[in-house]
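User: Teach me something about this protein's shape.
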Amino acid sequence: MIKTIIIDDEKHCSDRILNLIERQQPNTFNVLKVIDTIEDALELVPQLQPDLVFLDIKIHEKTGFDFLQAIDTINFKVIFTTAFDNFAIKAFKYSAIDYLLKPIDADDFNASVSRLRETISQQSMEQQLQNLFKNIKPNQKKVITIPSLTGFETLKIEDIIHLEADTSYTHIYTKEGKTIVSKPIKFYENLLDDGLFFKTHKSHLINLDHVKQYFKGKQSYVVMSNKAQVPISVRRKEEFLKHFN
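Assistant: First, the predicted structure itself:
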């Protein structure tokens, strides 16, 4: 069973997680403790050595981030629980860190548990959390975490030149070369900033900052900073040109 701690200062929220565990996943979790302050969490988490922490974002006058940055070693998985916050959620997605929106839905909870089972045996989350800390700072350069054969790697978003669909895979082209990821391009279309990335074609997503040339005609295309030629569909051409007017 997964040794678990819940850190939340709202009893009805921690009770909701306990109820979901009891009703949906009774043989998955061993709840060691429910904690409602950062101070208690810093004392008890190292003692109890959980595999997983359900961590609220806002805990009294402090945050779950304060806890993670203060604790000496992060040798457990984290699932954040949060009220709706576009900025924080975008940071979670960039960093490939799981989260649950309050009030927590049973289907979302079960989906999160399924993802957890796939990763619980992997190494610590410290690199992913470091990426998260970068992504929640407004003026920091943003990074995304992508899966690899050996675990995961991080990419600066500004270094991504373009992405190309390959059935259920995506080829991500950067200054350093190409990375193939086992996620469809739709995932990255939803993830990456609308103001910086543009879908030129059903199979192509480009970083507008890396566009070097545009060639008009029946088969319009752009030349990117890595000299790749990326097509622009007829339906997308007018909207594309608006970005440069």
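Now, about its shape. The chain has a mean pLDDT of 85. Residues 11-24 form the longest helix (14 residues). If you'd like, I can walk through any region in more detail.
User: That's plenty for now, thanks!
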